[in-house]
Amino acid sequence: MQIETKDFFFFFAKGPDVTTYVENGIADIGVVGGDIIIEHQPDVYNLFPLPFGQCRMALATKKDYQWPDQKKRIASTFTNITKTYFKEKGESVDIIKLEGSVELAPILGLADAIVDIVETGNTLKENGLVIEDEFLAFSARLIANRSSLKIKREQLVPVIERFKEGAKQR
Ligand code: PRP
To answer: Cα angle vertex 131, ends 127, 132, to 5°?
Structure first.
């Protein structure tokens, strides 16, 4: 979906692609989930949090699941976040990368557990999964291309300020 106004051109893209468009200067600014920023560490100005899209990262598995004695298998789209989480716990696990529908992995026996974002908790509930641990809370964030912010400062600062004002009012 695209929207064009007198001064701006807006387009919608998948989260990880938003950072790619902003990183490459195709978009001057972007709105993206904090999870994407933590996972992919894009080379952009990570400006400030916005008051929507509040989520947290969770380790979840089947209810009453008997964890195996051997190395755990953890499925996730967020492999870097998962790696860091288990590294900090001093635990070695096998991480299986999935692109979506991560909640299927424990049900189908691909993994012992998943690391995924949780907002309402409905997806986990619908799939009979329970949260073992919650870590990292984040929301949507405003990001900007590094060069754009210097070159187009006069145009962009008022827009960024409006985002900031809007965020304060919520
Ligand atoms: C995320 C996540 C869960 C869902 C959690 O998926 O992977 O599937 O949201 O939200 P809930 O706790 O409110 O149920 P998303 O909607 O971002 O789509 P994706 O599967 O394409 O990543």
So the answer is: 135
Query: In 3D, which of 107, 115, 43 has the Cα closest to residue 83?
Result: 115
Q: For residue 108, what are its two tokens? A: 């189908």
- 74 C-alpha to ligand 1 centroid (Å): 17
CATH code matching the domain that covers 2-52+139-169, chosen among 3.40.50.1460, 3.90.25.10, 3.30.2350.10, 3.40.190.10: 3.40.190.10
CA of residue 9 to ligand 1 center, whole Å: 27
Residue 35 has pLDDT above 80, yes or no: yes
Secondary structure class of 170 (helix, strand, coil): coil
Segment 92-117, tens digit of pLDDT: 999 999 999 999 999 999 999 999 99
Q: What share of the chain is helix, strand, coil (3-state, %, to 5)?
A: 35, 30, 35
pLDDT band at 162 (very low <50, low <70, confident <90, very high): very high
CB 152 within 8 A of CB 28: yes
Pocket of ligand 1 (CB under 6 A): 100, 102, 116-123
